[in-house]
Each structure stands twice: as structure tokens, then as C-alpha cells.
Amino acid sequence: MTTSASEGQAAGAEAPNRRSQLKSDRRLQLLSAAERLFAERGFLAVRLEDIGAAAGVSGPAIYRHFPNKESLLVELLVGISTRLLAGARQVRARNSDASAALDGLIDFHLDFALTEPDLIRIQDRDLAYLPGAAEKQVRKAQRQYVEVWVGVLRELNPELPEADARLTAHAVFGLLNSTPHSMKSPDTSRSKGARAARSRAVMRAMTIAALEAGNQCP
């Protein structure tokens, strides 16, 4: 049985694709392990070797993906700040009505708080350990994210001072980002799901109440 030229070319093309996929998968495994360990122990207490061991990568193989643990921190924090900003802008673009946009922003940030508790913890605690350029990039994205909220709040209430709108936005972030900590429980999976739904509803109601209070001009 012979192999045609086209079959040989297809097989040759598949091998690099498989290698590329394996490399991508391994990189994601390292990022996931770094996220978990940084959140649990803090950036300074984690070695690159610890991350490799947690991801099942040992020795020099780690350095094929990341030169040091700082590069992992950069990818995690730059990545999440970029995604947050892009997501908020998409929410705003989809909703010409400011009230609908605010509802969308609340749900978007609440989803983030519930699904990315480790990244919130890392960002709060370890942002200062980023290299200078990366820290500036993250802080710029954070400021721009705040401004999306400020724009919506002031569109809803044009008399609201910009400084008050910004303060309100930061207060909302603090409230929503605390959500994962308030939901820790040793309950079963089923009860956890029900508790999460209740907690989400409560946190959303609290957020709306806080926004209504902050949106009042003296």
C-alpha cells in the first residue's frame, strides 16, 4: 500500500500543529498553576520550580515557556486587566441606554468576581511586584475601566460630580470583589450552587442600593 503525496503532506502538516497545541496546553497549565499558587501563598513565596511541579513540568522545560516567575505574573495581571476593559467596553457598546449599560456592567463585574477570585487576590496583593512597564500598563487599563463606569453613572445623572462618580465606582468594585470571600462554605455541591445563586442576588441588590445612594447629589 502506497501513500499519496497529498496524504504525506497532510501528515507532515499535522505534526507541527500537534506540537503547537501541546505547547499551548502546557503554557496554559503553567499559568493555571501560577495563578493558584500566587493566590494561595503570595508571589514572593512561590518559586518557578514550585509552579513547574504543580503543572507537571520539570527542569529546563519550564524556561521554554516562561523565563522567570515575573513573566507569569505579567501575563496573568496584564491579561485580566485587558479582558476586563475590553468586556466593559463591549457592554457599553451593546447598550445605548445608560440604565441598561449599568445593569450590564454590574453583571459583567459580578461574573468576574465569582469566576476569578484568585486573580482578584493576586491583583490586590501582588500588583506592586510587576516590572515597571507592566505595572503602568495594568494601572492604565484599570483607570480606563473605571472611566467606563464613570461615564455611565454621569450619563444617568449629569449633575453627579466626576469625583463622586469615580468614588462610587471604586466602592462598587470593592463590594463586588469581596463576593467570593463571603461565599466560602464547606457545603455540598448542590447547596453551594443554591447558596451561590442567593449570594449573587444579594450582592447585586446591595450593589444597586450602593449605586443609588452614591448617585444622589447633595
Automatic annotation (TrEMBL):
Residue ranges of DNA binding: 47-66
Region called Disordered, residue ranges: 1-21
Residue stretches making up the HTH tetR-type domain: 24-84
A Pfam family annotated for this UniProt entry: TetR_N
Keyword Ligase set for record: no
Annotated signal peptide: none
InterPro entries, sorted: Homeodomain-like_sf, HTH-type_TetR-like_transc_reg, HTH_TetR, KstR2_TetR_C, Tet_transcr_reg_TetR-rel_C_sf
Compositional bias segments (type: Low complexity): 1-15
GO BP field: negative regulation of DNA-templated transcription
Keywords: DNA-binding, Transcription, Transcription regulation
GO molecular function, one term: DNA-binding transcription factor activity
PANTHER family linked: HTH-TYPE TRANSCRIPTIONAL REGULATOR RUTR (PTHR30055), TRANSCRIPTIONAL REPRESSOR MCE3R (PTHR30055:SF237)
Subunit: Homodimer.
The protein, known as: TetR family transcriptional regulator
Species this protein is from: Mycobacterium intracellulare subsp. chimaera
